[in-house]
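User: Please run a holo structure prediction.
Assistant: Happy to. Please share the sequence and the ligand.
User: Here you go; the ligand is protoporphyrin IX containing FE.
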Amino acid sequence: MASTTPSLPQLPEEIPRPNHHEPTESEPLLGRPGDALQRPNSPMYRNLYLGTGILSQAGLLLLLLSISIPLLSHRPLPPLLVPHPLLQLLGLALLIQAILILQPTTKSNPTAKSRAAKSHGILQLFSFLLFLSGTAIIETNKHVNKLAHFHSVHAYLGVITLSLLVVQYLFGFTIYVTPNVWGGEDKARQLWKWHRYVGYGVLVLLLATTGSAVWTEYIETQIGVSKIGVVLGLVLIAAGVFPRVQLGKLGLREY
Ligand code: HEM
């Protein structure tokens, strides 16, 4: 005989909560675990736009167009100035790709992580060469035209940021290639966390340096770059990169 007992109503704790999750090693700064993770068998290039990464790519495009269109339309083109912004912007674009390609990797997929780390190093090397060439051009411009150094906030920020970048490249290079400098592989591995903290700090400084360029006398009075376009581009870049930071990789969760 069928039971006549009515089924009990579901208790609140039995109702599945779709948004509830336990913290995991891959917990990003914003969003749910796995939002910006490289899945097994997923191609590495997808890391470049995964999750919020697409915002960074849109921001880079906006930044590049906002500065290069008015710059290259200006007549006459000052030959020792024009290459500086273009080379620095390309350097920034490669540096962002270097961050985006590595961010979604986890230690649970060591092969993918090691491949992405190699690409990170190569992209950073090319980015560094672009920054170096762009800086050499602007310094030559100052020397040839007998212009004063440290003429703007941009100049101060530029020199500070580039100096920190050199330290950061050496830091990453020695941890990766010559770990004995840091007392062996195990000790060196523990330093990656600090490489990440410094890296994100330098990124903020790089974005500030790029933004401040729009307020230099020459760009403001001669070129007329859209400040809204540049600031929006920089905000989008940051909004793409920072929410994807894995808290475990910064030592803020078990990793
Ligand atoms: C990450 C990107 C950049 C870095 C690291 C950087 C770095 C520098 C440095 C080191 C100087 C010369 C400092 C001196 O000797 O006094 C400089 C000058 C200059 N930069 Fe940049 N720059 C960047 C991006 C840009 C961009 C995107 C523009 C254009 C929109 C730009 C426009 C200028 C101008 C016009 C000067 C000469 C004026 C001045 O020194 O006040 N820079 N930059």
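Residues 67, 84-85, 88-89, 92, 135, 138-139, 142, 149-152, 154-155, 158-159, 161-162, 206, 209-210, 213-214, 216, 218-219, 225 surround protoporphyrin IX containing FE (CB under 6 Å).
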